[in-house]
Amino acid sequence: MIDNKKVLFSGMQATGTLTIGNYLGALKNWVALSEEYECFYSVVDLHSITVRQDPAELRKRARALLTLYIAAGLDPKKNCIYYQSHVSGHAELSWILNCFTYMGELNRMTQFKDKSAKHADNINAGLFTYPVLMAADILLYQTDVVPVGIDQMQHLEITRDIAQRFNAIYGDVFTIPEPYIGKVGAKIMSLQDPVKKMSKSDENPNASVYLMDDPDTIMRKFKRAVTDSLATIRYTEEQPGIRNLIDIYSACTGKTPAEVEKEFDGKGYGDFKSAVGEAVVSVLKPVQERFYELEKDKTFIDSIIKENAEKANYFATKTLRKVQKKVGFPEKIR
């Protein structure tokens, strides 16, 4: 709790390029949360290096992601928008929490199994202990709520288990975080394989629409979107391609799936795909324009990076000192 507001934490990796799935499913909904919560939004670049990264490219993407947070509408004065790597408390707390996490718990994590299969040539210890760093991210700020999708719920559960275990030994140290239950962001699927989630790392260039795609590229990708041969626009499980397009159109326009069905009743797939593409172009245009403005203002972005790192470090240090004292580390002489 900060200034009578509950604390909310979330973050995104600085790898790949954000898709409309990241925007419509999460980032767009973060903007409204700053009125109700004290929000910490991190560019989680420590997590990124479990996979080998080009250093210059990682720095470039991290800055672009932080800039996109602001371009999407997050006020850096109301929200703490910062680089995870600029707050050493994330790594320090992660090591301590590693000592309160069991191998069996980490062995059960499905993301480790999935990522190990994708990166069989680099199954490193960081990949295995990734959930502990995620727990440190959350617990470091005494987080009350965490927006999570179904695929992230397992990480929040292990965070709660670690915090409760630590508290049982040392007293009331960590706030036990709850999942954020609010407006659910749309789960956007691949345009080429609509039973799979849209991904930043999809090898098929037509499967994902990226936040910085130009209008022509967006329209072309939607025209190539996989549908079916039923020739009817209905929001059903039997039509995953059409269902996904309806979700995207609904997220962009605010209309319900039933309203979308009614609007396009009797119309062909070509018309519908074009309408969805135009809706996406319309939503992304102001974000892109704002991004390009901010990108040119190096002094402003640098000031945000500095100020918010200081703010994040202030709150992180409060928790870290308490934890260090509890486990028996000598106090620093100041």
SSE diagram, text form:
Blueprint: E1 6-12, H1 20-30, E2 37-43, H2 45-48, H3 55-71, E3 80-83, H4 89-98, H5 103-107, H6 110-118, H7 125-128, H8 130-139, E4 145-146, H9 153-170, E5 178-179, H10 215-223, H11 240-253, H12 257-263, H13 269-296, H14 298-327
Helix pairs in contact: 3-13, 4-8, 4-14, 8-9, 10-13, 11-13
Question: How does this structure look, described?
Answer:
The chain starts with 5 loop residues before the first strand and ends in a 7-residue tail after the last helix. Strands 1-2-3 form a three-stranded parallel sheet. Strands 4-5 form a two-stranded parallel ribbon. Helix 1 (about 20-30) links the parallel strand 1 and strand 2. The chain is built from 14 helices and five strands. It has two domains: about 5-185 and about 300-325, HUPs (Rossmann fold, 3-Layer(aba) Sandwich); about 215-295, Tyrosyl-Transfer RNA Synthetase (Orthogonal Bundle), CATH 1.10.240.10. By secondary structure, the protein is mostly helical.
